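Sample 3 of the quickstart, ligand glutathione:
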Amino acid sequence: MKQTQDKNSKNLIGKQSYKVLETTEPWILYHNDFSLCSRKVRICLAELKINYKPIHINIIETGSADNLTKDFKFINPNVTVPVLLHNGSPIYESHEQIKYLQEFMKNEINLNDEISYWVKKGSLIGEPINDLEKYAGNCVSLLTPPLFISMLQNISIFKFFSYYIRHPVKFRAFNFIIFKIFGFNSYKAKTPLFKISQKVITHLNNHMREFNSQILNKKWISNNQFSVADITWAVLLHRLEELQILEKFSNNYPAIENYYIRVKKRHSFKEGVLDFKNTSVDKGVKILQKSISSLNHLRKHYIEIEDSIKK
Ligand SMILES: N[C@@H](CCC(=O)N[C@@H](CS)C(=O)NCC(=O)O)C(=O)O
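Result:
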């Protein structure tokens, strides 16, 4: 049943021929409420009206690392969510899951160069620090730490040691330990994170300007047809909203503001994102809002963001 996937876990991409679960459920999604990639796949499933069994897997940000259990490592040795099972066989990597679902439903409309361009631009590709001028997804990923820091505040430091030991990707686990230890001090002037953020926001502003022009007088990104490009940008804008950054773009980019209002009314966004409320995320957002107004150096970081958008 299970092949030699542990040896080749790095190559686990797309649909596998073996099963990781004997099940009568045609579709199962291992996902996390907060994870961007999980949100994309859930919107896609809702768009395609596919019934599926969602299984929530906590990751450290949402309180405990259930992704590091033996049971989940059997499902995905790379310990990431989402994982989609079709008749018990896993499909790895969110973009492959979306491609597989579209092909399965023969949803050919969703393929053209314009859509591919915007999907790529909105995705996290390679290491986040690289290609900031190409990918808005990389920029948003680098602006996310304040929310991680907020969400990690209520988790005991002791959990992080076992998290580090059990995590197969040490540098990922290490980043979270740093966020836990240094908290919002990571945003004091002249710290690496503070400096990176200044660079990131300039690039993100360019992406947002281009995106604003793209959707001017349009309902959706391509041919006025809701597509995987809209799924990609919907979750990015939602993350920027959680980060308290989206509102700063509103004055300069009214088309984005109106687009996001339409996104929030879309049935699939409601079913795939808004209906998956999570108390750790809600608490994290509240802590972040409070910290921006009470901590000088964090407020300064947000003022820098506002200023570079106005430029
Ligand atoms: N390239 C993967 C990325 C998946 C990923 O990084 N998922 C994160 C949540 S957004 C995760 O599972 N993190 C858990 C961890 O690293 O401990 C995909 O597209 O599915």
